[in-house]
């Protein structure tokens, strides 16, 4: 008994005197119009049940050859027009970065001023937990005109298989490309991870002790660098949307996006390094290290104030701040929450075992940062992360 696949392949042959390729083209016209390359057409035909027999009846050696003819004969058609996404201006990115820096640094400064004691961590952690959740629903001012096409949606490959299924309709008043405002558990988990990354080292080292002052200064600099992490994430998404409009194929888009992630991470780490050295310089000027001076300028004394392990752990902390922010802004909020929470757990475990906070950042945090980076590199390079 002939199955559905045989029936579809038989239909491809068509009646005598009828072009069998035209028959296949009529049946799968929408697939051919929305395809980004012949390989997508071949995959769609195979999923629809056509096989080598159907390609042979169309006078082709295989489905790939048939797909190339269909791709050449059917003109491309962009998706249906929709409201244009809101512009992501420099002022919008800068305002969000400044707000994140201030709202993150204030509770960390309060906790450090109270000596990093455990009772001071709970009230300081609440705003840190709620900040990413509130920013998840933030949207730039919408100046979209109804009936215009979304540039990202009308790109040549916007209907490609990499973008996944069509997104559900947006609620009234919500602009495309920006999630509706909700307090999602993933955003709360991301905030809890950030709170743990910044507050747990304070409690482990004791911000009131001489060595704890260095940790407090570094954590305050890291809290201020949350603004640069926010800016880097928004800039990365803005560049991705621009490449989404400009690239003609998925391969070209991936090639355009390949250097963007390292640049975003490097910019954030550079800002973190400047803030860290500035914080150590202020600490050295306000509270010099007791004992005879060692000579050298203020910058030299500031560098000597922190141990190399502490400076290396500060760089790892910077990665654990910016990578989850990048994932959250590109639709990977669950992965962002897991990465931040795993980093906080890695920072809490070594002090519980009697190791220093710097060892916590180097031993556990580096492993988590590498794991998050290994996930973020391919995930953030996909077109679906910038819709």
Mean pLDDT: 75
> What structural class do you assign from the helix and strand content?
mainly alpha
Give the helices and strands as they follow along the chain: HHHHHHHHHHHHHHHHH
| Helical content (DSSP H or I, runs of 4+) | 55-70%
Largest beta sheet, briefly? none
Task: Give the termini separation.
Answer: 46 Å
**Total helical elements:** 17
Low-confidence stretches: 1-15, 80-87, 139-182
Strand content: under 5%
Number of self-contained structural domains: 2
The count of strands amounts to 0
Gross morphology:
elongated
What integer value in Å does the Rg equal? 27 Å
Brief synopsis:
The protein is an all-alpha fold and 387 residues long.
What does this structure look like?
- By secondary structure, the protein is an all-alpha fold.
- The chain has two domains: 19-73, no CATH class; 90-137 and 145-162 and 180-386, no CATH class.
- It contains 17 helices and no strands.
- 44% of the residues are buried.
List keywords for this structure.
disordered N terminus, elongated, 0% strand, mainly alpha
Mind sketching the topology for me?
Elements: H1 4-13, H2 20-27, H3 29-34, H4 38-47, H5 52-57, H6 63-73, H7 90-113, H8 118-136, H9 185-205, H10 210-224, H11 226-246, H12 250-257, H13 260-286, H14 298-305, H15 308-329, H16 333-352, H17 357-380
Helix pairs in contact: 4-6, 7-8, 7-10, 7-11, 8-9, 9-10, 9-15, 9-16, 10-13, 10-15, 11-13, 11-15, 13-14, 13-15, 15-16, 15-17, 16-17
